Amino acid sequence: MSTRLAAVISGVLLVALGLVAVLVFSAGADTVIGRPTSHHSEPAETKHKVGLSALVESTTHTRLDRAPIDRHPQRATQGWVVRPEKMIRLFDAPRGQAFGKVGPKQIGPTWLPVIAQRGGWTKVLLPSKPNGSTGWLRSAYLHRTYTPYLIRVHLGTMRLELFSEGREVGSWTVGIGQPSSPTPTGRTFILGSIVDPNQTYSPIILPLGTHSATLDSFGGGPGTVAIHTWPTTDVLGTASSNGCIRIPQDALDRLIQVPLGTLVLVDPH
């Protein structure tokens, strides 16, 4: 991770101050599943005493300590990703307690990987701290699409693998976080795609929905981990970054074709 990356992410999210980044998105066509009768109020069984405006939004800048933690941090999903139609509540269980909210856009469109479904409810991974945060959403308020891709990162062997429909379509040696700021393990996802003309280390940066465990703040940003290239190739096969995953250019050329919300599994092996 770099000071420039943290600054870019902060700039993207603080839209009121103006953007310096161009957002890139290729999630493909989506469909709406189970629209509610009215878009002006949630079903009675999900109403909560806390108003929507009082809830903290799940973004790469926020922390939601009441969010349930992912119980299966190395389990692949079926490839479904969802996007909220509007700002909606996050619940700790189906028909449970609201602990936050999530909207349709932050670093570009907000696509979240589906990790469970129950009746009219969908459980997703979240981009906010702590790492591995999850939440339940009403399925009626979600757009849904499918990504055939899965990204696996093996920290022990410093390899990144790209799969499509379960078949490996690419494998590369990568650079990972140094011991003092290791790359976090577990399930995460591609949160955004950023082009920043003011930096030279990567033509496109892919922020993930996870954060450094040791750098709570970095260069004014939230310590967001990302996948990106580097000006020199000597970092590949080394543990030398601040937590980000450094990849060769040909790997980036493939990964920028992967839809937002695609699952990324990081293991220690």
Outline of the structure:
This protein is mainly beta and 269 residues long.
Description:
The chain is mainly beta and 269 residues long. It has a domain of 131 residues: L,D-transpeptidase catalytic domain-like (Beta Barrel). 7% of the residues lie in helices and 34% in strands. It contains two helices and 22 strands. The strands form seven sheets. The protein has a six-stranded antiparallel beta sheet with strand order 2-11-3-8-9-10, with no helix packed on it. It starts with a helix and ends with a strand. About 14% of the residues have low confidence.
**Name of the CATH homologous superfamily of the domain at 3-13 and 148-267:** L,D-transpeptidase catalytic domain-like
Give the amount of beta strand, in percent.
25-35%
Share of helical residues:
under 10%
Q: What's the overall geometry?
A: globular
Radius of gyration: 18 Å
Characterize the largest beta sheet: strand count, sense, and whether it forms a barrel: 6 strands, antiparallel
Structural class call reads mainly beta
